[in-house]
Amino acid sequence: MADLDLTKISALNGGSQPLHGYLAQPAGEGPWPALVMVHEAFGLDDMTRRHADRLARGGYLTLAVDLFSAGGSFRCLVSTMRAMTKGQGRAFADIEAARQWLITSPNCTGKIGVIGFCMGGGFALLTASRGFDAAAPNYGRLPRDLDESLVGACPIVASYGGRDRSLKDAAAQLELALTDAGIVHDVKEYATAGHSFLNDSDGGPRLLRPLFRVAGIGPVPEAATDAWTRIEDFFAQQLG
Question: What are the contacts of 176-182 at 24+ separation with CB within 8 A?
Fold first, then answer.
């Protein structure tokens, strides 16, 4: 496990200066299929690193890219969310820089997926048509023009919480759109879960965590176990 400097490759396509990431590498000898991981709105924190470590233990060379490298979460969050809304901007260049780093790595088989959580889930969905072989958006916001964004998309496995008021009916809308587009997919909504249910502990600023719990935001172990199994099985099928 190591921190990476992706600044040079990011400079080639207008990405963040600097750009950093966290690489989680499986044990043993590669090459392995790879994943680009995109974090929640709180940044590349210990939670994101644990997610990356988990997937590395499952056999995936996992690169968690830090979309807030150029100024921290408070400075970068607004511009990053703006990029998500527009479907273009520096955040997409940063994700592409991470994908390019993996492509050139001798430890990568050439099969690369993208996985994201919360804000990162939105980016995982938006980048599903941008050179990836599989995508796993988790409680990610749907694009304004969902049908258009799915043109040419790779296979998608998506997970949502039925108690997540911010994403009401998102799972059903995504399921319908993917079916209509003929894209291989696995979409599931967990009735007992809210937002961020895949996390293994409470996240975000400590002062806000009690409010998050009241709002139903945070770990739901039973739902998380099932969702992780689906994600890992789906990646095994699509990435090899």
Answer: 177/146, 177/147, 177/150, 178/150, 180/147, 181/147, 181/150, 181/151, 181/153
The verdict on residue 125 lying in a domain is yes
Which CATH number fits the domain that encloses residue 65? 3.40.50.1820
pLDDT tens for each residue of the chain, 240 residues long: 789 999 999 998 899 999 999 999 999 998 999 999 999 988 999 999 999 999 999 999 999 999 999 876 666 677 788 888 888 899 999 999 999 999 999 999 999 999 999 999 999 999 999 999 999 999 999 999 999 999 999 999 999 999 999 999 999 999 999 999 999 999 999 999 999 999 997 766 666 655 656 556 788 999 999 999 999 999 999 998
209 in any annotated domain? no
pTM over 0.90: yes
Domain carrying residue 61: 2-191+221-239
The pair phi, psi for residue 117, each rounded to 5°, is -130, 135
**Residue 105 is assigned to a structural domain of this protein:** yes
